[in-house]
Specification:
The chain is of the alpha/beta class and 397 residues long. It has three domains: 119 residues, FAD/NAD(P)-binding domain (3-Layer(bba) Sandwich), CATH 3.50.50; 142 residues, FAD/NAD(P)-binding domain (3-Layer(bba) Sandwich); 84 residues, no CATH class. The protein is built from seven helices and 23 strands. A hairpin with a 3-residue loop joins strand 22 and strand 23.
């Protein structure tokens, strides 16, 4: 957003400040690939200042509270910032403490996450030395960052233990989810369910996690169902930033109520929300933020001159799904259109296939790291990929 706005705003009359307590930025899609040896921790981290234009005021400090009634943000160091327009981009974090028993006993010994840099690097070491047994990939509840990442982990684990460790026969993989199948959309769920069956990955659907008991290595659902594990790879509850709770601006999971088409706060007209911090029914994924940023920039400009906001964001998301053995899927969808077959990014030409497993999609997944650092963070457009989803070249009934 800062890179977009610097190019569009008169910086003689507008000052842009970014407040962030963390000096380093992580390429979070890379967290999935660290346990399987594609990347190391050093490959996915760079200083934030590397990507900020010189006209932006970077304040490295934690947010204590947002005070929308006073148009102010209070920082932990006591500093008060006044604002005319506020963009909330506080994201989400994992909250393993919200699952009873998850942090007791086996944490980072038999229970691991890969949604944090600490968790994924610890898991990488564990996978190299583990001697097999029951591997359970566990999705606690939705929404989460990157909804396909747990699926990708299960697929890559199948490949890793077969090709890298040569011990797939000693590993039983289960995928435990509160969903009725592999994904949230019917067509892609059917495709991915079939792939799981082919890979001998057992799906345990509609599992609503109550607690974990590492003393007996079991997870329990509210309905009384239980799943045993020897190695538990969990995606804990995802929640919004604590500053949102302190500011009384969010729902029970600290997500900010947001208009799903304009990205304006539902309660404060000069506050806008981008990315994972919102309660939008769109994927919490990097591609979504990129598309939102293009459209929110135009709405910020409209707001400044008093024009009506454009209800332009359609929930557009696209992402690669690693399926192992050098192949991947690519899906493209929005609020109204579920992932379907077709070609991407050019209609009818591609070169990438949608909702099909191909080697080119796998290489696209790996190439995305370069695109992320050099195009997305810097606010540059991606040629042929529009912020609003194109229906051309897609098999939409």
């Amino acid at each position: 957003m800062a890179n977009h706005l610097v190019r569009k705003l008169d910086t003689k009359n507008w000052q842009i400040s970014i407040v962030d307590e963390h000096p380093m930025h992580y390429y979070q899609p890379g967290f999935l690939l660290i346990p399987f040896g594609f990347y190391t921790g050093a490959d996915v981290v760079k200083p934030k200042t590397k990507f900020l234009p010189k006209e932006v005021n970077f304040i490295q400090e934690a947010i204590d509270e947002i005070k929308p009634g006073a148009n102010q943000v209070a920082l932990r160091n006591g500093q008060i910032l006044d604002y005319d327009i506020l963009i909330i981009a506080t994201g989400v974090k994992t909250a393993p403490e919200m699952i009873s028993g998850l942090l007791e006993g086996g944490w980072r010994e038999r229970i691991f996450d890969f949604y944090t840099i600490e968790g994924t690097t610890a898991l990488a070491k564990k996978l190299q030395e583990w001697e097999g047994g029951r591997l359970v990939v566990h999705l606690a509840e939705l929404p989460i960052k990157c909804p396909v990442a747990p699926l990708e982990f299960a697929f890559l684990a199948d490949w890793f233990f077969q090709e890298k460790r040569k011990m797939r026969e000693r590993v039983e993989i289960s995928y435990v989810t509160p969903l009725s199948g592999a994904f949230t959309k019917p067509r892609s769920t059917a495709v991915l369910n079939h792939l799981m069956a082919e890979k001998n990955i057992k799906i345990v659907p509609e599992f609503y996690t109550e607690r974990v008991d590492d003393s007996v290595r079991k997870i329990y659902s509210y309905s009384g169902q239980e799943v045993e594990y020897d190695l538990l790879v969990t995606i804990p509850t995802n929640i919004g930033d604590a500053a949102i709770a302190r500011s009384s601006m969010g729902d029970e999971l600290n997500y900010v109520p947001t208009d799903k088409h304009t990205l304006q706060s539902k309660h404060y007209e000069n506050i806008f929300v981008i990315g994972d911090a919102s309660d939008l029914p769109s994927s919490k994924a990097g591609s979504v933020v990129h598309f939102q940023a293009e459209l929110l920039t135009e709405n910020i400009l409209n707001f400044i001159v008093g024009k009506p906001l454009e209800p332009s964001f359609d929930g557009h998301a696209n992402c690669f799904i690693e399926s192992g053995f050098g192949r991947a899927f690519l899906i493209d969808f929005n609020y109204e259109v579920e992932p379907v077959e077709g070609r991407f990014p050019l209609p009818f030409i591609g070169p990438m296939a949608l909702l099909k497993e191909t080697r080119l999609n796998h290489w696209g997944k790996l190439a995305f790291k370069f695109v992320y650092w050099n195009v997305l963070l810097r606010g540059w457009p991606m040629p042929t990929i529009t912020a609003r989803m194109s229906k051309l070249g897609k098999k939409i009934n």
